[in-house]
Amino acid sequence: MEILAFGVQADEKPLLEKAFAGHHDVRCLGVFLSEDTAPIAAGYEIISTSVNADLNNRVLQTLAAGGTQMIAQRSTGFNNIDLDVAERLGLTVARVSSYSPYSVAEFAWTLALAVNRRIVRASNRTRDFDFRLDGLMGRDLRGRTVGVLGTGKIGEAFTRIAHGFGMELLGWDVAENPACLELGMTYVDKERLFAEADLVSLHVPLMEATRHVVDAAALKAMKDDAILVNSSRGGLVDTEALVAELRAGRFTGVGLDVYEAEAGLFFLDKSLAGIEDDTLARLVTFPNVVVTSHQAYYTLDAVGQIIDTTVQNVLNHVGRRRDENVLVPRIG
Questions:
Q1: Which member of 95, 118, 144, 233 is catalytic?
Q2: How many Cβ atoms sit within 10 Å of the Cβ of residue 43?
Q3: Is residue 125 among the annotated active site residues?
Q4: What is the pTM of this model?
Q5: How far apart are CA 7 and CA 127, in angstroms?
Q6: Is 262 a residue of the active site?
């Protein structure tokens, strides 16, 4: 059987081909799954998608009509898939329920340190042989307060690094993580967290309850010199409200690896065509903002685990086995 994989990055292609070798053939496409590209999947029983695929009602109907029976998503998040429609059409949907939490946690700290110590500005200056220190002053993190929204595996890994810096730990989640409590974390309501934290980092999934959890009110409650980092999902932050606060001269720095309207932009080269998204175009002009293209997960370790799990999900489907990675059909 040949598997059709959409949205495959150049670094990812040889890893996918090697992982599937001896099991199934795999055809790797650089294009993302969308209404325009869905007809390509005709005749493929199993397809694999990336987190920026758009699996809406029309796309799923096109897939089902073309003979697709199984969708293996190469990510933990699945808010881009209409699971109700998939179930109605009899499609099996599986995801990667977990992979290296250190990849994302370490990158979140990379963003935090980059904006705090003005690394991008400093690097750009020295390329022009400008070695002045004006405007590059940062702050010690030791003794300051970090607020962690979401203390699951990634949030816990982020918290362990914060503990190593000697920071005061505040957390917010639906359930307290015993490991974070042992590190000295105090769980508080998110209003207190926003008000007291010098650094806020987001590690919650995107769902209706968390959409724009960082809204205009939350942003206004934050300290004027706070740092905000989002390496989870773009929809957690009200970007329009964030731009308004940045225009008012607030925040020491903002590090974003995700953007709520990133579909159709991230993972693509828009350097010649430009973009029509005025909000993103404005966002990247602020000197205290660093935007990266959803690369927090992108380590050899994490991508390898994602691919290995994807291969196992396909083998389980073929062998009519199910585990916790299967989203549809639902159990119960």
A1: 233
A2: 10
A3: no
A4: 0.92
A5: 34
A6: yes
